[in-house]
């Protein structure tokens, strides 16, 4: 599919006073179910559709609308958006940093452009006619249908040549992971579509997100979730990053609220389209010391994963989110002690 001129997009705008109709793609990852829950509370159960290519667990299936959507299939996406009069699209499908390094081709296909490397020419035709694109599909689609589009980015969109302490919104971005490269691509494409075609693109660079009832899938910051489960169950944890590796982090409730807030922010408050957001920064040894306050026998040991360590060493240590705070009033609720108490209570009560 080729975008040739501004005229190829006719905006189907919706009144700002209407409830949005939201589609969340990649909805069964770490964040989708939680986001659906807070959006449903705000806009009504039937106005938020969760989607994925995987079969949902029954509690997800019964908690609100769920449908199959394959972002690589333009026709499937069109049917969903048209049939449900979707006005907001939240695009959560992504392959994270560590898994991306282990499978670069998969990360490239899912995170950027899903043209598959098929050698058979008839299959090329099928691919061409079905418009298999990933992110590009979503951008074209959102522009064509006048959707408000949210695509998350990450601290991973920065690299070793970015200022790391703190990292501002605008600076050198030369990430060294395919995940980071794909996220810079998404940021730039979204902003380009915003300026060129008027796409209402909104993007937050998330820090490592910590959640108790949903698991991250193959990232570098995953240790900061696993530590709570192991501490609670076994009183010990083997960490795959060095003790002093400091990274920006956030509790999931803050992350989901930030997403809702930036999506609801009036356009005139947005001086940019891609914002850093942050809550806290800590290292494994600082996190372990906080866990020890509540589980005095807790022991942490270190067995370094060199791929994850190299990634973490190239990422921001502190994230400057001053523009989000000034422009649309971003403010985190959870600091490190609050995070640790909340996670241990949640996991403890779950296992009782
Ligand atoms: C990862 O570690 O890959 C993600 C991220 C920080 O984007 N959690």
UniProtKB/TrEMBL annotation:
Keywords of the record: Membrane, Transmembrane, Transmembrane helix
Database matches in InterPro entries: Epimerase_deHydtase, NAD(P)-bd_dom_sf, NAD(P)_epim/dehydratase
Pathway recorded for this protein: Amino-acid degradation; L-threonine degradation via oxydo-reductase pathway; glycine from L-threonine: step 1/2
Catalytic activity line of the entry: L-threonine + NAD(+) = (2S)-2-amino-3-oxobutanoate + NADH + H(+)
Record SUPFAM superfamilies: NAD(P)-binding Rossmann-fold domains
Every NAD-dependent epimerase/dehydratase domain range: 136-277
Transmembrane segments: 121-139
Top-rank taxon: Eukaryota
Signal peptide: none
One example of a Gene Ontology biological process annotation: L-threonine catabolic process
Catalytic activity, EC: 1.1.1.103
Acyltransferase listed as a keyword: no
Family membership: Belongs to the NAD(P)-dependent epimerase/dehydratase family.
Stated role: Catalyzes the NAD(+)-dependent oxidation of L-threonine to 2-amino-3-ketobutyrate, mediating L-threonine catabolism.
Protein name, entry field: L-threonine 3-dehydrogenase, mitochondrial
